[in-house]
Amino acid sequence: MTGVGPVLRFCPESNDLLYPREDKERKKLVYFCRSCQYQEDADPKEWCVYRNEVQHTSREKSVVLQDVRSDPTLPRTRDVRCPECANNEAVFFTSSTEEGMTLYFSCCSCGHRWRDYV
């Protein structure tokens, strides 16, 4: 089966998609149906485990988006005061490092950025 992508499996009883999970007692990979009790062992020749670890340099980790205050997916707070213009609304996001967590703020008025170490 080399060169072929993942094969979708379907339950012979309900025709629903089968999902992979570990049978911890037998230490095997099985496919199971979420609608009924059907399950089947996975063929060891079809097992494929892929792990992608992305390594970032310290410079890449410290890059902050240019205009985060216009990002509608970021949360906003009115519980901070901008050190530059004293406005009380800012967007914020976090970043975790080995040293701890850092909370980044960007003022919604002037765009000034600052951080708080949590």
Task: Explain the overall architecture.
The chain has one helix spanning 58-61; strands at residues 18-23, 28-33, 39-41, 76-77, 90-97, 100-107, 113-117. Strand 2 (28-33) and strand 3 form a beta hairpin. The chain is mostly beta strands. 3% of the residues lie in helices and 32% in strands. It folds into 2 domains: 8-50, N-terminal domain of TfIIb, CATH 2.20.25; 72-117, N-terminal domain of TfIIb (Single Sheet). The model has no long low-confidence stretch (mean pLDDT 81).
Summarize this structure briefly:
3% of the residues lie in helices and 32% in strands. DNA-dependent RNA polymerase catalyzes the transcription of DNA into RNA using the four ribonucleoside triphosphates as substrates.
Q: In which range does the helix fraction lie? A: under 10%
Q: What pattern of helices and strands is seen along the backbone?
A: EEEHEEEE
Question: Average pLDDT value?
Answer: 81
Query: What does the oligomeric state look like here?
Result: single chain
Low-confidence residue ranges? none
InterPro entries: Rpa12/Rpb9/Rpc10/TFS (IPR012164), Zn_ribbon_RPB9 (IPR001529), Zn_ribbon_RPB9_C (IPR034012), Znf_TFIIS (IPR001222)
GO molecular function: DNA-directed RNA polymerase activity; nucleic acid binding; zinc ion binding
Organism: Chlorella variabilis (Green alga)
Family: Belongs to the archaeal rpoM/eukaryotic RPA12/RPB9/RPC11 RNA polymerase family.
